[in-house]
Amino acid sequence: MRILLAEDEKMLSGYIAKGLQNSGYAVDAVYDGEEALYEYVVNDYDLIVLDLNLPKKDGLDVLREIRQRDADIKILILSARSSVDDRILGLDEGANDYLVKPFDFGELEARIRNLLRREFSQVPTAVSLGRLRLDTKTKQVSYNGTEISLTRKEYGILEYLMLHKNQVVSAEEVTEHVWNNEFDPFSNTFRYHIHSLKKKLFTASNLDCIKTVRGQGYRMEDNL
Ligand code: CA
């Protein structure tokens, strides 16, 4: 899952980005409203964490402009503006949630998880394909009850494929959601990670869990 974080307080931004990255999210941090809009337009995000008091363009204006283009992207406002009126305004303009500073990181993360779950509304905390089980909350993966130890990137790839089961997903699409702007599309990074992931899954299950669809991408099926 890839998150755009628009927060101009560098220390707070660094703290949030680090915490979210530790939880397996790909995070792009921007520090003003114009940058936020630009990154939103050129990349494909699953969720936006948006501060309201931003330089160059106010967070509410960013929110309005994004909502005019996209009714579905999840937006969580993070703001020191704590009055009820501000909260109502933010929600009326189309934010999906509103968290007042100072906040607890655990609560921010729980709200993000909740919003992303709503995006994939049919998917509960855990996703299972055959005996392969993935828990989006604990980030644990197991086959037939035995845990499979994955790196953060391997987990991110697997989570994306499992949430889009029975569909062919291209490598470009996976990397858009699992890596942030630092990803070099010309490197072998993706191939390296998916190869390693496939190998671990095979070792655990003796099955080819992630099918390669030649020239198109990858697919995971219900009936593993
Ligand atoms: Ca601010």
What's the gist of this structure?
With 224 residues, the chain is α/β, with parallel strands linked by helices. The chain has 8 helices and 11 strands. It is 42% helix and 21% strand.
Task: Characterise the protein shown here.
The protein is of the alpha/beta class. The protein contains 8 helices and 11 strands. Helix 2 packs parallel to helix 3 (59-69), helix 6 (152-163) packs across helix 7 (171-178) and helix 6 (152-163) packs across helix 8. It is elongated and about 55 Å long. The mean pLDDT is 91. Calcium ion (CA) binds next to loops.
Q: Which helices and strands occur, and which strands form pairs?
A:
Elements: E1 2-6, H1 10-22, E2 26-30, H2 33-42, E3 47-51, H3 59-69, E4 74-79, H4 84-92, E5 97-100, H5 105-119, E6 126-129, E7 132-135, E8 140-143, E9 146-148, H6 152-163, H7 171-178, H8 189-205, E10 211-213, E11 217-219
Parallel strand pairs: 1-2, 1-3, 3-4, 4-5
Antiparallel strand pairs: 6-7, 7-8, 8-9, 10-11
Helix pairs in contact: 2-3, 6-7, 6-8
Calcium ion (CA) binds next to loops.
- Major beta sheet, specifics? 5 strands, parallel
Q: Ligands in the structure?
A: calcium ion
- The coarse silhouette is elongated
Succession of helices and strands = EHEHEHEHEHEEEEHHHEE
Name the structural class. Answer: alpha/beta
Helix content: 40-55%
Identify the strand order in the major beta sheet: 2-1-3-4-5
Give me the Rg, rounded. Answer: 18 Å
Ends distance: 23 Å
Q: Which regions have little confidence, pLDDT < 50, spanning 5+ residues? A: none
Strand content: 15-25%
Query: Whole-number average pLDDT?
Result: 91
Number of strands: 11
Number of helices: 8
